[in-house]
């Protein structure tokens, strides 16, 4: 905000207020933050000025960028010109404890390219009548909450609250806490290489990294591809480096043996992160012991395999990435995260997906998983001229897909009891999660007695143990 004597009384008045207030310019950047914002977020307001304030724009590891992005207005704001949102800031490295959630009122001043947005924190009783906007805001709040609790897990592959997503995050967190050889088992299109890169940067920041496409390698080409890191390792006896090998199960045996030689030559200063399809098989057994080395990794009928020398290195740490078919409940959050990222990168102006569009995304089987979903979101962003992505903006294959097409009606069946049981189990788990594990509160929300809820939970635990 421009400095002048005319503005000083107003600025002093704003700074004396306990209500946080900030201003966003037409380009989506913060231009003014009151002193109360600094007290709320436990940061200097000046440190946020000039940062991009658009949902999903925190594409760097700077915690202040994530903080600025969390202050952005909700979906539908540009059309309505006014909106309310409960903001859950992620906090900064210096903020302890995390800043509290704050009900915020956004108001647009002006119109077109010259409009600015004013945000004021406080208590508001506004009721939104647009059910689509309400749903989009709920999804945005879930995503903001997820980002707040998983700030370091920025990849779209890890977004979600399903069991599969939780397991993947735990495996990535463990792999990123120690420098060790690592095997990533991934279906196609699950962004395994980005996970490998993230693990490398967390476990060995600043260490040189090279990525190799295993299917194209022979020993000579492998030596050329690794030359950057091998020269680095030869120059210093204390240096380390990492090689990411895509498609280890498709890498020719002689190239695998050459890679094993380099790792042994540098006494494991060359760390290997290998990416494979699910459950690679081991094709070369130790000729001295003739042991069944296939026990190191699950046997499979996939073409190719993993050399026993590399399998010995990779048997310690592994990450299993799951296909979207096992993470259907995560698809709305993943799609919204991808939409936010595309919007902040300037690919379009849409800030939410309609309910019908989300339904179409959930129904589609996604054979190429996250890669295909990201392409669908990108196409929808470019096709959409408004703020809401509709089914017509999605790729034809997605919007026209119908489950059970081609299956005779007589062959289609639904197990009612099993379907009801799954719905009940999912509802109980979700309510317990929202109640922070408080069973009495969960029973109140489900409108059942605590004793009945405990019986249901005991039954679920018994079913899971069988």
- In round numbers, the mean pLDDT is 81
* First-last Cα distance: 64 Å
Describe the global form: globular
Q: What's the alpha carbon Rg, rounded to whole Å?
A: 26 Å
Task: Please give the CATH class of the largest domain.
Answer: Alpha Beta
Q: Mind describing the biggest β-sheet?
A: 5 strands, antiparallel
Q: Summarize the amount of helix as a percent range.
A: 40-55%
General description of the model:
- This is Transcriptional regulatory protein ZraR.
- InterPro entries: AAA_lid_NorR (IPR058031), Homeodomain-like_sf (IPR009057), HTH_Fis (IPR002197), P-loop_NTPase (IPR027417), PAS (IPR000014), PAS-like_dom_sf (IPR035965), Sigma_54_int (IPR002078).
- GO terms for molecular function: ATP binding; sequence-specific DNA binding.
- Residues 6-51 form the PAS domain.
- The chain has 466 residues and is of the alpha/beta class.
- It folds into four domains: 11-149, 2-Layer Sandwich (Beta-Lactamase); 163-320, Rossmann fold; 327-399, Helicase, Ruva Protein, domain 3 (Orthogonal Bundle); 421-465, Arc Repressor Mutant, subunit A (Orthogonal Bundle), CATH 1.10.10.
- The protein contains 18 helices and 14 strands.
- Strand 4 and strand 5 form a beta hairpin.
- It starts with 7 loop residues before the first helix and ends with a helix.
- The model is unreliable at 1-5, 149-154 and 281-304 (pLDDT under 50).
């Amino acid at each position: 905000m421009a400095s002048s004597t005319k503005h000083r009384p107003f600025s002093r008045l704003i700074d004396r207020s306990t209500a946080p207030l900030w201003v966003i310019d037409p380009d989506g950047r913060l231009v003014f933050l009151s002193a109360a914002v600094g007290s709320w977020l436990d940061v200097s307001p000046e440190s946020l000025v000039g940062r991009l304030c658009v949902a999903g724009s925190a594409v760097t590891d700077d915690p202040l960028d994530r903080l600025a992005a969390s202050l952005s207005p909700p979906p539908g704001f540009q059309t309505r010109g006014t909106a309310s949102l409960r903001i859950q800031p992620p906090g900064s490295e210096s903020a302890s404890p995390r800043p509290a959630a704050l009900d915020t009122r956004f108001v647009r001043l002006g119109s077109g390219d010259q409009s600015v947005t004013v945000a004021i924190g406080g208590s508001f009783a506004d009721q939104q009548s647009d059910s689509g906007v309400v749903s989009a805001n709920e999804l945005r709040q879930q995503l903001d909450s997820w980002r707040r609790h998983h700030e370091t897990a920025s990849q779209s592959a890890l977004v979600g609250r399903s069991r599969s997503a939780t397991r993947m995050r735990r495996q990535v967190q463990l792999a990123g806490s120690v420098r060790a050889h690592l095997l990533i088992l991934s279906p196609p299109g699950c962004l395994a290489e980005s996970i490998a890169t993230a693990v490398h940067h967390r476990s060995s920041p600043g260490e040189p990294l090279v990525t190799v496409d295993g299917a194209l390698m022979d020993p000579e080409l492998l030596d050329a591809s690794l030359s950057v890191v091998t020269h680095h390792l030869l120059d210093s006896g204390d240096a380390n480096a990492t090689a990411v090998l895509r498609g280890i199960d498709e890498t020719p045996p002689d190239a695998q043996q050459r890679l094993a030689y380099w790792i042994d030559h540098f006494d494991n200063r060359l760390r290997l992160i290998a990416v494979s399809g699910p459950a690679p098989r081991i094709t070369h057994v130790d000729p001295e012991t003739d042991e069944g080395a296939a026990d190191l990794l699950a046997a499979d009928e996939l073409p190719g395999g993993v050399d026993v020398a590399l399998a010995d290195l990779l048997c310690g740490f592994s990450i299993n990435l799951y296909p979207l078919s096992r993470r259907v409940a995560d698809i709305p959050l993943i799609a919204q995260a991808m939409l936010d990222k595309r919007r902040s990168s300037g690919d379009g102006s849409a800030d939410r997906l309609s309910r019908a569009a989300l339904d179409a995304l959930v129904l589609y089987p996604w054979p190429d998983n996250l890669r295909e979903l990201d392409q669908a979101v990108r196409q929808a962003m470019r096709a959409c001229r408004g703020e809401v992505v509709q089914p017509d903006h999605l790729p034809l294959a997605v919007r026209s897909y119908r489950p059970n097409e081609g299956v005779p009606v007589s062959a289609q069946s639904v197990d009612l009891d099993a379907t009801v049981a799954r719905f009940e189990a999912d509802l109980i788990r979700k309510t317990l999660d929202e109640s922070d594990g408080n069973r009495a509160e969960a029973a109140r929300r489900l409108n059942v007695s605590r004793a009945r809820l405990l019986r249901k939970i005991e039954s679920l635990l018994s079913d899971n143990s069988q």
